[in-house]
Amino acid sequence: MRFLRNGLQPTSIALLILSFRSALLHPLAKPLAFALCLLPLTWLLWGAANGQLGANPAEALIRGLGDWTLRFLCLTLAVTPLRIRARVPQLARFRRMLGVFTFGYACLHLLAYGWLDMGLDAGDIGRDILKRPFILVGFASWLLLLPLAATSFNRAVRALGAAQWKALHRLVYVIAPLALLHFFWMRAGKNDFADVALYGATLGALLLERLLRYFAPKSSDRA
Fold first, then answer.
1. Cβ atoms 135, 71 nearer than 8 A
2. What is the tally of structural domains in the chain?
3. Closest CA to 95 of 44, 198, 166
4. Taking a C-beta distance cutoff of 8 angstroms, is the pair 91, 223 a contact?
5. What is this structure's pTM?
6. Is 38 part of a structural domain of the chain?
7. Counting beta carbons within 10 angstroms of the beta carbon of residue 76, is it exposed (0 to 12), middle (13 to 18) or buried (19 or more)?
């Protein structure tokens, strides 16, 4: 083990893990995570206001918000596997926040498209959604996110019951492939598939891990 060759003993690793767990429970951990989640939006808005988004700032803003929606979706899906595999249950505190930010960035992505591309003309937006498959798929992903965002609070969990709430939130297994397909079709226009492969591999691995855990015998955690 490299850690042992470099002089880092198992006890030191254990202490690091304990310190990390304690840091995740710190009262400032959630506000700090919230601020970090706002950084991409702050950067994009600052770039748009100061001419730092290139020759086509509207397109850069729309695509940047879409990219960050996909990244937050990956982060949200990664929480449970990391929590279980790394044995850091404290990570669960941040899953809801990341999910809400996924929805928030998706809303801003849709708003930027409707405003900057379509001038907030509802008729034009509707026709464009029906005419272009990649926009239709992206819009479908956003629609499926709506019930997840609306039931992301404790009161909704109590009202639905744990079993129904979990069943509803398995919509993420549909949302993730649709979001990736939207991203693929968008990048296909520029023949740029490098990021598509990266996100595809990430989402594929995360979804596969969840499915394997779900069907594993004697599995008690299928969140």
1. no
2. 1
3. 166
4. no
5. 0.88
6. yes
7. buried
